[in-house]
């Protein structure tokens, strides 16, 4: 999301690498329990539902619903002004914070249908952003 380099040396760790590597390839990848089929984020070593250790990374649909959003008017160096922080819930039932892209995102209705998209040129690494499905 920053519009310019912040000078920070940011990196992800091995446990979250499948998420970031999937995003770099234009795919939303999340953890899923092989025992009870619960989807998870953030990274877990055991299922949050049944506590099984059978956790694997799987491609997700990329579809989501807007759960909440906040328009940030405070100016921060390197960030657009204003910008929107959103919580989305994927069709798999996972909620996470992200940003929205497209027109008039500040006024997007809660419950809007969304689709993940990825900018391979984003630095220091690609993250999923979500756009309203018309």
UniProtKB/TrEMBL annotation:
SUPFAM superfamilies: Nucleic acid-binding proteins (SSF50249)
Superkingdom as given in the UniProt entry: Bacteria
Coiled-coil blocks: none
Pfam families cross-referenced by the UniProt entry: OB_ChsH2_C, zf-ChsH2
Residue ranges annotated for the ChsH2 C-terminal OB-fold domain, each copy included: 57-118
Residues covered by the ChsH2 rubredoxin-like zinc ribbon domain: 20-56
InterPro entries in the cross-refs: ChsH2_C (IPR002878), ChsH2_Znr (IPR022002), NA-bd_OB-fold (IPR012340), Thioester_dehydratase-like (IPR052513)
Gene3D superfamilies in the record: 6.10.30.10
PANTHER family per record: BLR3430 PROTEIN
Name used for this protein in its record: Nucleic acid-binding protein
Source species of the chain: Aeromicrobium ginsengisoli
Phylogenetic lineage: Bacteria, Bacillati, Actinomycetota, Actinomycetes, Propionibacteriales
